[in-house]
Amino acid sequence: MNNLRVSFSRNRTLLTPFFAFQRDVAGELGIEGVSRDPVNYGPPNLRFTNYAPLSDASAQLRRDRSLALSNSLKWHQEEHKVDAGVELRRVHTATVTDQDARGTLVFSGLATSRLDAAGHPAANTGWDLADFLLGLPQSGSIRWGSSDTYFRGWAVSGWLQDDWKPLPGFTLKYGLRYEYFAPPSERYGRMTNLDVAPGFTAAAPVTAGGEGPFSGRFPAGLVEGDRNNLSPRIGLAWRPIEGSKFHIRSGYGVFFDGSIYQRFPPLLASQPPFAKANAVSTSLERPLWIGTAFTQTQVKAVTNTAGVDRHYRSGYAQTWNLSLKHDLARHIGLEVGYVGTKGTRLNVQRLPNRAAPGSPLTSEQRRLIGNAVGFTWESSEGNSIFHAGQVKLIRHFQRGVAAEMLYTFSKAIDNAASFGGSGGTPAQDDRNLRAERGLANFDQRHRLGISFLWASPFGDSGTLLRGGGLKPALLGNWTAGGAVIWASGTPFTARVLGNRTDAGGTGAIGAGRADASGAEIKSRTGYFNTLAFTIPPAGRFGNAARNTIPGPFSAAVNLAVARSFRLGEQRKRLEARAECSNCTNHVNVNSLGTVVNSSEYGLALGAQPMRSMVFHLRLSF
Question: What average pLDDT does the structure give for the chain?
Answer without folding.
Answer: 89
